[in-house]
Every structure is written in C-alpha cells, then in structure tokens.
Design a protein that fits this description.
Pfam families: Phage_int_M (PF22022). This protein has about 80 residues and is an all-alpha fold. Helix content is about 70%, strand content about 0%. The chain has a single domain, classed as Tyrosine recombinase, N-terminal domain (DNA polymerase, domain 1), CATH 1.10.150.130.
C-alpha cells in the first residue's frame, strides 16, 4: 500500500515537472496580467514552436542551449 502511494506520488511529481505542464501553470498566472489577445498569441507560440521541441521533457533535463533553440522561432 505505501509503496503504491509513493509510486503514485512520484508519477505525479514527474508529470508536474514536464515542461508543457510548467508552462501551462505559468501561463495561467501570466494571462491575468496581459490583454486577452496577447495571451492568445503567447499560447499559440508555445503550442506551435516550443511544445513540439521540449513540451514532453522534464524541466530538470532541459539544457540552456535546448531552451534557447526552442525559443528561437518566437523571439520578438
């Protein structure tokens, strides 16, 4: 029983640390401080350019160079 609970907790931690999950949590906060159109643009850019590159990678495993390369298409 305890082992199952620990495994479930570890799985939830792993899911919570995936870049797309972290980005979605950040976006919820960010979208409150920008216009709806700008928020839509941010999310669209993440979905189109960033998530395909690093969306399923845990944030702890993302190297700076990988992040910079993923963000390159959306630099303004």
């Amino acid at each position: 029983q305890i082992q199952a609970e620990v495994a479930e907790e570890q799985q939830q931690i792993a899911l919570d640390s995936i870049f797309s999950t972290v980005a979605a949590n950040w976006f919820q906060l960010k979208s409150k401080s920008v216009t709806p159109d700008y928020a839509k643009d941010i999310w669209r850019s993440l979905e189109k350019d960033v998530f395909p590159a690093i969306g399923e990678i845990p944030v702890q495993q993302i190297k700076a160079r990988t992040l910079v390369e993923a963000l390159e298409p959306i630099k303004a």
